[in-house]
Amino acid sequence: MSEFAPDLPAAAVDARLRAAVADLRRAPQNAVLWFAELMRRRLYRDCGYASIHAYAEAVLGFSRNKSFQFIRLAESLDRLPGLRDSLSRGELSWTKAREVVKVATPESESRWLAEASRLSSRALEARVKACRPSGRALHAETLGQSTLLPGSSLGLPVPTQEPATPAATLGAVADSGSRVQGQATETVLTLTLRLSPLQIGRLEALQEKIRKRSGGSGRRQSREEMLIAGLEALLTAIDEADSPARCENGKELPRGNSTPPYQVVIYRCEDCGAARLPDGRALAPAVAAQAACDCRTHRVGETNRASIPLGLRRAVLARDGHRCQAPGCRATRFLEVHHRRPREHGGTNEAANLITLCAACHRLLHKDDGKLAAALPAAGLSIPR
Q1: CA-to-CA separations, 136 to 88, 103, 131, 169, 209, in angstroms, rounded
Q2: Strand runs (DSSP E) across the chain, as ranges?
Q3: Which of 44, 241, 255, 274 has a beta carbon 3.0–4.6 Å from 49's, enabling a disulfide?
Q4: Positive/negative CA dihedral, 58, 64, 67, 68
Q5: Cα–Cα–Cα angle for 169, 171, 175, nearest 5°?
């Protein structure tokens, strides 16, 4: 892109203006392709961010809604190769691509690309809206063995056939082997849920509602994380119903989660530091260090000891507003307290040495990621003990 220069002849100004407008039109497509590359290869971790959402907000300055739009489009490029090619060649604008991914499937992709090339952006938006029943993208592909029939009662999907055990996998399927993390190998397991077509439809609808009501922040988590967060929210609701916190006028008060996050047993060798679960599965060193940073330790013949006194832990969480302090991350669930300087390197349990992080950011930091450690904010005010 050429720099602006005043007082040029008319022909030169005309040529440079045309070139600048062409670059302007091409920029969104290129931005989406680069964004998809960074997200697909998880390069945001190398940049010091535990999630693509934190990177988009802190580095790119995206709003929650814009982050969601980019992520949704980037996720669709792998299953819609024609759309990717159209974006790469500059044939499809960002505005039209954003609409196409709402309804296109691998089977209907070519038809929707033809519609996008024929219609204006506003006409395409209206066409897409008309093809999305009740504004929800519950098309046949999403519903597995079912299809949405016109005139069905309450707009619910009606199965074309009822398989004995219709199956659907929640979230991206991880490899059944292992994934390399630095010099360590961490086993990644695949969880498959068998859902009926109606259950899949309800799942998609709930995800859409979460995204809309949270202004896009509900899509900051992966589907796997959303599943775990949903179960935790259910447990929290049950606990609060049993013993809600109340102020003087009887109104219930919101409470942050101040309990230690690790309630699973991890065996760790005192000599080599290797850690494993009771069933024998090995844990990567970063995960073991993450757990040891904020846990309760039991040694034979000794009483259990918390790595951080519980009163101090509650005070640190309150100081940090029960929110992850990593740049760009606003997580309020799965919070852990991290020692800025490790205990084995002389770090203490002073408030200035402690900071609140979510599990994902905490794990990334323990993988010796200097960028994230350097980007953490300075410690808040000291807490009386």
Answers
A1: 28, 10, 9, 20, 10
A2: 146-147, 158-159, 178-181, 184-187, 267-268, 275-276, 282-283, 296-297, 305-306, 335-339, 354-358
A3: 44
A4: positive
A5: 80
Residue-wise pLDDT tens digits, 238-273:
665 555 444 444 544 444 556 555 567 888 887 787
Burial of 194 (0-12, 13-18, 19+ CB in 10 A): exposed
Specify the higher pLDDT residue, 126 or 343: 126
Both tokens of 99, joined, read 């609409």
Average pLDDT over residues 29-53: 89
- Position 242 scores a pLDDT of 53
DSSP, collapsed to helix, strand or coil, labels residue 356 as: strand
The distance in angstroms from the start CA to the end CA of the chain is: 59
Q: Kindly report the CA angle at 226 between 256 and 283, in degrees rounded to 5?
A: 85
Q: What are the tens digits of pLDDT across the range 83-121?
A: 989 888 888 888 888 889 888 888 889 999 999 999 998
What is the number of residues in the chain? 385
**What is the DSSP-derived secondary structure letter of residue 61?**
-
Is the per-residue pLDDT at 133 higher than 60?
no
DSSP 8-class letter at 193: B
The whole-number pLDDT of residue 384 equals: 47
Residues with Cβ within 8 Å of 171's Cβ and at least 6 positions away in sequence, in order, are: 222, 223, 224, 227
Q: Which residue from 302, 287, 295 is spatially nearest to 365, judged by alpha carbons?
A: 287
Alpha helix stretches (DSSP H) within 165-284:
197-213, 223-242
| CA–CA dist 141, 384 (Å, integer) | 57
In the predicted structure, residue 154 carries a pLDDT above the cut 70: no
Q: Are 35 and 70 in contact (CB under 8 A)?
A: yes
**How high is the pLDDT of residue 376?**
84
- Band (pLDDT 50/70/90 cuts) for residue 60 is very high
> How far apart are the C-alpha atoms of 329 and 49, rounded to whole Å?
8
